[in-house]
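Renewal narrative, Specific Aim 1. Our central claim is that a sequence can be written position by position from structural information alone. The example that follows is taken directly from our test logs and has not been curated for this report. It begins with the structure tokens describing the chain, in the order in which they were read.
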């Protein structure tokens, strides 16, 4: 680690000499790189191209009370080492603008628009600087994540100025879907331009129910923040709780007990199991293959009943806590978990056989909704969708946390397909790998305590946290405030990265394929619209 860290520092110093200042974080795998706005693009392009790092997140922060400026952080993840390079620039209140890097690094496009909406900082040179989160229906000069914006402010309702792209031509007509849907999901608007059943273009608009989640984190002590973190997403509660706890533990300099690391890993893989199995059933639903759908939900139900036995609820809330875990797993519970998983594995194998032996189902899944490797890389796609499109990425391997560096497992990469069936196969393979990880954890778990005591949080400390949720990589960035409060807690969910890729998978498919393609990504409205 130290050799690779020093190599990165040396390369950046030699390349940019007096134009960057490198700060060694108190965390070994984080390097902070300060530069000016005029040098930003060169630094970011060099890190992405020469150092082979991908843009994992962008964070806007109102630091006017600390140093007189706003500050933007660009988080790059090294693909070949457990290392993050965090470039940051100051943005003055008098000149609230910064150079867009989207034309060179397309993955930045939503981040820059989000920062514009929430902080009022203009990404100069952005190819589409229109509103993203706020839909243009906020009063002028209203920026919710600035420190001088009171969370109790009542905002009058105004007409939305949300633009839609329109395809012109003979025989082209529009099919609006949403934002209110027939299913029990949050709102999203999808406007198809089609000729007959063939789709030419999809314009997707989200962010209809912005909840002010990141602002809420700034109003409560860190101990209460855990309950909010668990509720960012209904079916990724353990992932978001683990990400929050890891961030707090890092800035506090706390190491959780080894037994707690293994229990967290077991819980996270159980969460992956019930999500992936349910998603396989959902994909069958999208193709009207009701036999596969029924079996998928039946098997998922068995895992969720197991979750309730372990921690008292079906969604694994309340299990992960700051400093470790709340409940231990004794020998009887261990035996019950392993016995249940043995039955689940048998049932799931039967479901997989049904799927792969149904020619009519495969006809719907294969070649449908293809996402190319090139587009996936440029947009920063993560998780199942990335691996199905040939990108070998998994946070559990690249940036191991909990007990993932103590277990062996494989990740499935499909280099040429990128279709609905490839995304299904990734989930199928990961179901078996999750069971294998849980079995290893029980073989290797040590005796000992399950929680350690917490210290006072030092003010104005920064740290990254990361978790590979069922949907992909979650990235969290924390900055503490005095009196055990949070100055900033930025959440970047995998859905935020992956939603922009959906319109690229739609053209050339037919309208009835959209629900199937959408379900194969299984993206979350709540995780996106914080």
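The sequence written for that structure reads:
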């Amino acid at each position: 680690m130290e050799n690779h860290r020093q190599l990165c520092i040396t390369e950046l110093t030699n390349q940019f000499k007096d134009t960057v200042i490198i700060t060694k974080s108190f965390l070994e795998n984080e390097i902070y790189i300060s530069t000016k706005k005029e040098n930003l693009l060169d630094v970011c392009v060099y890190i992405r191209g020469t150092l082979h790092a991908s843009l994992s997140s962008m964070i806007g922060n109102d630091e006017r009370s600390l140093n007189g400026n706003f500050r933007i952080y660009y988080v790059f993840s090294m693909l070949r080492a457990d290392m993050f390079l965090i470039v940051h620039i100051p943005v003055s209140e008098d000149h609230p603008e910064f150079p867009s890097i989207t034309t060179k690094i397309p993955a930045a496009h939503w981040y820059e628009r989000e920062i514009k909406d929430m902080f009022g900082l203009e990404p100069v040179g952005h190819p589409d600087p229109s509103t993203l989160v706020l839909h243009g229906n906020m009063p002028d000069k209203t920026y919710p994540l600035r420190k001088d914006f009171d969370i109790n402010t009542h905002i009058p309702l105004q007409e939305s100025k949300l633009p839609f792209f329109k395809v012109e031509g003979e025989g082209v007509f529009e099919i609006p879907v949403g934002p209110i849907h027939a299913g029990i999901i949050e709102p999203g608007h999808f406007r198809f331009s089609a000729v007959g059943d063939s789709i030419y273009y999809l314009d997707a608009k989200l962010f209809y129910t912005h909840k002010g989640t990141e602002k809420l984190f700034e109003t409560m002590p860190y101990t209460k923040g855990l309950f909010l973190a668990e509720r960012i997403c209904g079916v990724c509660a353990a992932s978001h709780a683990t990400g929050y706890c890891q961030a707090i533990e890092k800035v506090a300099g706390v190491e959780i007990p080894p037994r707690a690391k293994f229990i967290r890993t077991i819980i996270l893989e159980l969460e992956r199991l019930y999500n992936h199995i349910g998603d396989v059933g959902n994909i069958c639903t999208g193709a009207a293959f009701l036999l596969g759908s029924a079996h998928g939900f039946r098997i998922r139900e068995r895992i969720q009943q197991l979750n309730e036995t372990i921690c008292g609820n079906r969604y694994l809330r309340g299990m992960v806590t700051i400093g470790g875990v709340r409940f231990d797993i004794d020998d009887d519970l261990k035996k019950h978990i392993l016995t249940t998983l043995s039955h689940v594995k048998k049932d799931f194998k039967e479901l997989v056989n049904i799927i792969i032996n149904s020619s009519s189902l495969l006809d719907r899944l294969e070649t449908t909704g293809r996402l190319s490797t090139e587009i996936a890389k440029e947009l920063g796609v993560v998780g199942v969708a990335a691996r199905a499109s040939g990108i070998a990425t998994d946070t559990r391997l690249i940036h191991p946390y909990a007990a993932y560096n103590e277990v062996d497992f494989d990740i499935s990469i499909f280099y040429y397909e990128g279709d609905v069936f490839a995304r299904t196969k990734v989930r199928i393979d990961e179901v078996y790998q999750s069971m294998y990880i849980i079995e290893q954890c029980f073989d290797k778990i040590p005796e000992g305590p399950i929680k350690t005591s917490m210290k006072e949080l030092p003010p104005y400390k920064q740290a990254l946290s990361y978790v590979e949720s069922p949907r992909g990589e979650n990235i969290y960035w924390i900055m503490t405030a005095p009196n055990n409060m949070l100055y900033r807690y930025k959440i970047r969910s995998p859905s935020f990265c992956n939603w922009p890729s959906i319109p690229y998978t739609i053209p050339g498919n037919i309208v009835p394929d959209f629900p199937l393609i959408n379900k194969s990504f299984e993206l979350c409205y709540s995780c996106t619209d914080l």
